[in-house]
Amino acid sequence: MCLGIPGQVVELLDEHEHLARVDVSGVGRIINIGLLEDEDVSCGDWVLIHVGFAMSKIDEAEPAMALESSPMMGAAYTDELGALDSSRAVTAPGA
């Protein structure tokens, strides 16, 4: 099962056009937004993240609903958080 975690874009990194810093439940992460290059991602946007990649932009109502129901997903939720945590090793060049 694939699971996406919602995150809010807080910074677009100048060092690499496809990297952005997001806030995921109070934790900062650097993710790749390259798959959304045609969607004009900007600070404040919400994205659905899977294994360190933004898969789609989502509206503001979706993150609250997703985060409320996430713990009910059990192992799939835990696995996705683990994958997101391991993606934090990806940093901007020169960082």
Please characterize this protein's 3D structure.
22% of the residues lie in helices and 33% in strands. The protein has two helices and five strands, in the order E-E-E-E-E-H-H. The termini are far apart. The chain has a single domain, classed as Roll (SH3 type barrels), CATH 2.30.30.140. The mean pLDDT is 81. Strand 1 and strand 2 form a beta hairpin. The protein is an alpha+beta fold and 95 residues long. The protein is globular. The protein has a five-stranded antiparallel β-sheet.
Q: Based on DSSP secondary structure assignment, what is the total number of beta strands?
A: 5
**Distance, first to last CA:** 33 Å
Assign the CATH topology: SH3 type barrels
Poorly predicted runs of 5 or more residues: none
How many separate domains? Answer: 1
| Known CATH architecture | Roll
Spatial strand arrangement across the major sheet: 3-2-1-4-5
The overall average pLDDT, rounded, is 81
| Percentage of residues in helical conformation | 10-25%
Major β-sheet profile: 5 strands, antiparallel
**Number of helical stretches of at least 4 residues:** 2
CATH class: Mainly Beta
